[in-house]
Amino acid sequence: MDGILIDGKALAANTRAEIASGVKEYEAKSGRKPGLAVILVGDNPASVSYVTAKEKACAEVGIYSKEIRLPETIAEEELLRTIEELNHDKTIDGILVQLPLPKGFDEKKVIDTIASEKDVDGFTPINVGKMLIGEKCFLPCTPHGIIKLIEFSGMDIKGKHAVVIGRSNIVGKPVAVLLSRKETNATVTLCHTGTPDIAKFTREADIVVVAAGRPNTLTGDMLKKGAVVIDVGVNRIPDPSKPKGFRLVGDADLESCLPVCSAITPVPGGVGPMTITMLLWNTLLSANMV
Ligand code: GUN
């Protein structure tokens, strides 16, 4: 029997309903909505669509979103000044700078300027460090959403072998940390472009998280029967039959993985909705910490 598709939209809808009621409670006690500032520099089409989805999701749960769109010609100093102002803005609980930034910007410096108490992406060195040593902090949204999706698939993570493909700061490295924490207790193997034979590891895996940014990185012949697959890839493939001229595919080949795995996240409709949901979660958390 084929594996099932993990319905990220359904899990996101359940979680957003919980967040919406938390937002109402917060508003009743504080007299204001939790606020998220979303900064987009330039007009990268994928980033524009992510930012639009984030703003729409804020409205859906009652979070105030302040949209700041800046031209890619803006001086870095001005971007840093904008962030500094938001750091001191009492109506703003979370600040997000959509990545990647256009060429020429020092991404590390920009992220470092966000106050760690408002860093709802969990990207600043303070939050990354706290996550690593198990202190309370904002967990990064995609890795946190991935843990929720694995649990939602029905798999008990404890004692399982998880293989992560990709070592990015946004997904691969932090998800490996979260999976190996005491609360989750998986044994983790982190594969990357320097791993000569990734299939050797994935064939031993109960859980595979693929975040390589390349279609067909994971195929069915690389899986153990019954594995849970989380596909983090969002790749645009030219497709003249589509109105936008492209379609989205993940990093896993769904057709060959589905008959072997027990469950897999689709692209779109898997990880993406949960990433945004955990951002809303962190924004509410931040408001309640003030
Ligand atoms: N670019 C890709 N994913 C993310 C994310 O989770 N947050 C931000 N700020 N930028 C991204």
Note down, in words, how this protein is organized.
The structure is a single chain. The chain is of the alpha/beta class and 290 residues long. 40% of the residues lie in helices and 17% in strands. The chain has ten helices and eleven strands. The strands form three sheets. The chain has a six-stranded parallel sheet with strand order 1-11-8-7-5-6. Strands 3-2-4 form a three-stranded parallel sheet, with helices on both faces. The chain has a two-stranded antiparallel ribbon with strand order 9-10. Helix 1 runs parallel beside helix 10 (271-289), helix 6 crosses helix 7 (172-180) and helix 6 (141-152) crosses helix 10. It is globular. The mean pLDDT is 98. The protein binds guanine. Guanine binds at residues 96-99, 121, 141-142, 170, 275. Guanine is lined by residues 96-99, 121, 141-142, 170, 275.
